[in-house]
């Protein structure tokens, strides 16, 4: 394949060479006909005459005597992982140019500190189970209830405060703190397909969480997906005997993340961000009831129609 700025395609290069070599056309006439320079015509004619292919040669040099040696590259990577310093700082330590440091780090995907695990200093290793149901992620997303008239994000803090003070108290669960005014979105997402299931409740107790898990497992089962494992954080609901017994009853292996390591459950954490942008704070809702009523429609769009970059456009729809 020719480079983007090539004046002649490989097919026309062959035609140019044949006109000169086989039919004896003058190089200047061929160059004028194809609107290229005469050195270009001569180059392809010479290559055709010697039996060389009509494609571009690599511009990569055969020898690079000033190329950064492997020892320096390895030391650069080790310092990046241990010290988390940038190209300028590392270049002083190594005695090479900052651009060289950046090139080395880019080649091993360490050019951004986000690619390095802050806790361990090791490159982040992403994982994905090989079939739906092999692992599901569960978590709870807390959202402030929207007062009648709209929340402060769209109507401003002063008007939002006035709307909140004038909104009558909503009936809540006996377990919920009436001063918090929060909605608890219990989410379940499949590791392989990213298909999501969610319910909104007024608490995050073990009774509610286990009930959501049971309904989610049945929901996945109706779609031919058998849940084998569930991954959660170390919240009280997920450490309860009720949660343990429910998982045992359904034949599900329960795994918990390491304390203070939400990255392990990153797929559901990232889904919460997508949900916040696409549903929770996507537009001005006049009330909490209006926002809750939109969740089902948004989940249908997410599961059936929304392209997912993490899956390279692969979707296993619900």
TrEMBL record:
Domain (Integrase catalytic) ranges: 164-318
Any one GO MF annotation of this record: nucleic acid binding
One GO term of the biological process aspect: DNA integration
Pfam families associated with the record: HTH_23, rve
InterPro entries listed in its UniProt record: Homeodomain-like_sf (IPR009057), Integrase_cat-core (IPR001584), IS481-like_transpos (IPR047656), RNaseH-like_sf (IPR012337), RNaseH_sf (IPR036397)
Region (Disordered): 49-72, 153-176
UniProt xrefs under PROSITE patterns: INTEGRASE
Protein name: Leucine-zipper of insertion element IS481
Organism this protein belongs to: Brevibacterium aurantiacum
UniProt lineage: Bacteria, Bacillati, Actinomycetota, Actinomycetes, Micrococcales
């Amino acid at each position: 394949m020719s480079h983007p700025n090539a004046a002649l395609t490989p097919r026309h290069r062959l035609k140019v060479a044949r006109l000169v070599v086989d039919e004896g056309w003058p190089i200047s006439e061929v160059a004028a006909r194809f609107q290229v320079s005469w050195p270009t015509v001569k180059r392809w004619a010479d290559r055709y005459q010697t039996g060389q292919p009509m494609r571009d040669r690599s511009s990569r040099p055969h020898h690079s005597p000033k190329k950064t040696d492997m020892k320096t590259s390895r030391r650069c990577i080790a310092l990046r992982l241990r010290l988390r310093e940038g190209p300028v700082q590392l270049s002083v330590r190594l005695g090479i140019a900052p651009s060289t440091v950046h090139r080395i780090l880019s080649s091993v995907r360490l050019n951004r500190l986000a690619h390095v695990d802050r806790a361990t200093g090791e490159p982040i290793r992403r994982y994905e189970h090989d079939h739906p149901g092999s692992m599901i992620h569960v978590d709870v997303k807390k959202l402030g209830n929207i007062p009648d008239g709209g929340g402060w994000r769209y109507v401003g803090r002063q008007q939002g405060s006035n709307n909140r003070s004038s909104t009558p108290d909503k009936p809540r669960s006996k377990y919920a703190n009436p001063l918090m005014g929060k909605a608890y979105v219990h989410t379940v997402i499949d590791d392989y397909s990213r298909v999501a299931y969610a319910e909104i409740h007024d608490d995050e107790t073990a009774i509610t969480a286990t009930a959501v898990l049971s309904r989610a497992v049945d929901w996945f089962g109706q779609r031919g997906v058998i849940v084998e494992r569930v991954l959660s954080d170390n919240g009280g609901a997920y450490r309860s005997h009720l949660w343990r017994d429910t998982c045992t009853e359904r034949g599900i292996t329960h795994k918990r993340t390491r304390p203070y390591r939400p990255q392990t459950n990153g797929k559901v954490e990232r889904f919460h961000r997508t949900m916040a942008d696409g549903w929770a704070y996507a537009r001005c809702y006049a009330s909490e009831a209006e926002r809750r009523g939109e969740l089902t429609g948004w989940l249908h769009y997410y599961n059936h129609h929304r392209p997912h970059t993490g899956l390279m456009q692969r979707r296993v729809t619900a």
